[in-house]
Specification:
CATH topology of the largest domain in chain A: Ubiquitin Conjugating Enzyme
Family (chain A): Belongs to the ubiquitin-conjugating enzyme family.
Protein name (chain A): E2 ubiquitin-conjugating enzyme
Number of helices of chain B: 6
EC number (chain A): 2.3.2.23
Strand content of chain B: 5-15%
Strand content of chain A: 5-15%
Helix content of chain A: 40-55%
Largest sheet of chain A: 4 strands, antiparallel
Strand order of the largest sheet of chain B: 1-2-3
Number of domains of chain B: 2
Largest interface: A-B, 25 and 27 residues
Bound molecules: zinc ion
Oligomer: heterodimer
InterPro entries (chain A): UBA (IPR015940), UBA-like_sf (IPR009060), UBC (IPR000608), UBCD4_UBA (IPR042614), UBQ-conjugating_AS (IPR023313), UBQ-conjugating_enzyme/RWD (IPR016135)
Structural class of chain B: mainly alpha
Radius of gyration of chain B: 23 Å
CATH architecture of the largest domain in chain A: Roll
Number of strands of chain A: 4
Organism (chain A): Aquatica leii
Number of domains of chain A: 2
Radius of gyration of chain A: 18 Å
């Protein structure tokens, strides 16, 4: 890795670790390898959102040209959010693309991602299915996002009805995650989800 | 998103096929976004073009007189005595090599996004258009305020 990128990350690393925000906003960065090319980020779901109480892990890849190019970030923890792919964890956020600036740091990135969890931008979606639900059925979106937070990020709100529906599909031989995706995509309508899974 | 297909003449579908077509389109866009194909194709997600080389070459410079007078926000290193910094029009300063590396990539201040001129005629046209649009909005708002207050 180019020296400048590694040195920059080393300096930032101290900044994030030292910063009081780590405790306050619950953001965290850890090294994955010794050459600073790959890091593991962690953000806590913000209060008063369906992500509250959840802990979300991020994969951070630092390009050789950092900080002149943004880090490549994606969610490892599965999440139901209009700007994050429910399939790959890819993120649609301007500062990770055309609005990146060389003075930004991992700390700014993590705080921006936390802000994205508080304020989705459904008109610039990464996941069209989630974005559609977010716009057309806010209540259903909220319940679904809470459920995903509960299952994948350790969030507190258990949804008995959703769990039962998934169990039924699993008993029919469907993979649990696939069942969850199908049900989530069809507003937890058993009939339509089943139809899609078995078509 | 739809524009991308419309531009390429994908809009000649019968109404009956329309919703099916839209569904397919959504799937394709989702796949492309998921695998970051837009980035690789250099599509919408790109940084603005570099600052004009002439402007970059003529940026005023300064020599650092003493250590402990702040840090460069690009490399995050403290300034040291005798290092050269460049000052850009918004008055922000950075190590010469740091800011040159950035401005040869894109035209704005890494801290405040103040834009420097580029040598890309299409981008300059786009920027002018954006500015004009903003001015028009302000004009309309002023007009509105003068009429209703
Ligand atoms: Zn520097
Ligand atoms: Zn500036």
């Amino acid at each position: 890795m180019a020296n400048i990128a590694a040195q920059r990350i080393k300096r930032e690393f101290k900044e994030v670790i030292k910063s009081e925000e780590v405790a306050k906003c619950a953001i965290k960065v850890e090294l994955v390898n010794d050459n600073y090319t790959e890091l593991k980020g962690e953000i806590a779901g913000p209060p008063d959102t369906p992500y509250e109480g959840g802990n979300f892990i991020l994969e951070i890849k630092v390009p050789e040209t950092y900080p002149f190019n943004p880090p490549k970030v994606r969610f490892i923890t599965k999440i139901w959010h209009p700007n994050i792919s429910s399939v790959t964890g890819a993120i649609c956020l301007d500062i990770l693309k055309d609005q990146w600036a060389a003075a930004m740091t991992l700390r700014t990135v993590l705080l921006s991602l936390q802000a994205l969890l508080s304020a989705a931008e459904p008109d610039d979606p990464q996941d069209a299915v989630v974005a559609k639900q977010f716009k057309e059925n806010a209540e259903m979106f909220h319940l679904t996002a809470c459920h995903w937070t509960n299952i994948y990020a350790g969030g507190p709100s258990v949804n008995k009805d959703f769990d039962d529906k998934i169990k039924k599909l699993v008993e029919m031989g469907v993979d649990e995650h696939e069942a969850r995706v199908a049900l989530s995509s069809y507003n937890w309508d058993m009939e339509r989800a089943t139809e899609q899974l078995f078509s | 998103m739809v524009d991308y297909f419309q531009e390429r003449g994908f809009n000649t579908v019968e109404d009956a096929d329309r919703s099916r077509e839209e569904e397919l389109e959504r799937h394709i866009m989702r796949l492309m976004a998921d695998f970051n194909l837009f980035d690789e194709m250099g599509m919408p997600n790109q940084l603005a073009p570099p600052a004009s080389p002439e402007i970059v070459n003529n940026l005023p410079e300064e020599k650092i007189q003493e250590t402990n007078c702040g840090k460069c926000d690009i490399c995050l290193k403290e300034y040291e005595k005798d290092e050269t910094v460049k000052i850009i029009p918004c008055k922000h300063k950075f190590h010469s090599e740091c800011i040159i590396a950035w401005l040869t990539k894109t035209n704005s201040c890494p801290l405040c996004r103040h834009e420097l001129p580029t040598s890309d005629p299409i981008y300059e046209q786009y920027r002018k258009e954006k500015k004009r649009q903003k001015e028009r909005e302000i004009d309309i708002e002023n007009l509105h305020n003068s009429m209703f207050s």
